[in-house]
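Treating backbone geometry as a discrete language has practical consequences that deserve illustration. No coordinates are needed to read the tokens, only the vocabulary itself. For completeness, the protein is quoted in full, as a sequence line and a line of structure tokens:
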Amino acid sequence: MAKTRRLIAENLKLVDAVIEVTDARIPYSSRNPEIAKLIGRKPEILLLNKADAADESATKLWLERYKALGIPALATDCKTGRNINRVLPLVRSVLKEDIARWESKGMVGRPVRIMAVGIPNVGKSALINRLAGSKRAKVEDRPGVTRGKQWIKLEAGCELLDTPGVLAPKFEDKNVGLSLAFTGAIKDDILDQETLALVFVEKLRSSSPGAIKSRYGIEISDDMTDLEVFEAIGRKRGFLVSGGEINYERTAAVLLDEFRSQKLGRITLELPEGLEL
């Protein structure tokens, strides 16, 4: 992580703006606070990626909150291409005063240079590929640009600095760690999957109570414990071992996988209310 942090810091002086890619299902937890520290006063555009996997009304709340805070933000989905065509126009809009100043100095047509950052599993590489399309090629060498960096020509007079590495998640709040684990941003072998899945059931009951019933056909009463709901899922799917006991390991793996693959529907695990952004 120290190497990636150093790379970002070194390259910031070469770009005009930064695009931070986050996961729309967990907009708060998928932002690494180190990124804000590194960027400082550099203009930043925030993308809530994987928006087609998130609850649409929740994403709207997040966008409204960011607008109120004066943070340029856009809901995107690199898998479907949703709103990708709006990313570069938003960048140019954010930098319109800078562009006007360049042009007043005779630098008409000067390219807008941007960098994309984000933690693992939010879709940074997919975004770069979407923006680059068939134009993923190096731009001519320039003074002050060290070898190994790749400038990619984009549409709308923009260039993207493709630097290696992503910042690992950083969290002190255990709820942030859990949210990252639910989406797969933290490797599954770090946490016990059965315990994680049980906590996920609790989270799901509060954030998307209809998802379990819709997917597994289970009627959940208020007096059922999270363990009983978890076992009901395993029983409904037929994940049983000898003696009719629930196969907890398989149930946990399938539950988490079906959330990550959107088989449980469009789910957002965090809302902006009560969070300090």
Q: What stands out?
A: The beta strands are 17-23, 44-49, 73-75, 112-117, 150-153, 158-162. The two ends are 23 Å apart (CA to CA). The chain has a mean pLDDT of 88. The first helix runs from residue 2 to 11.
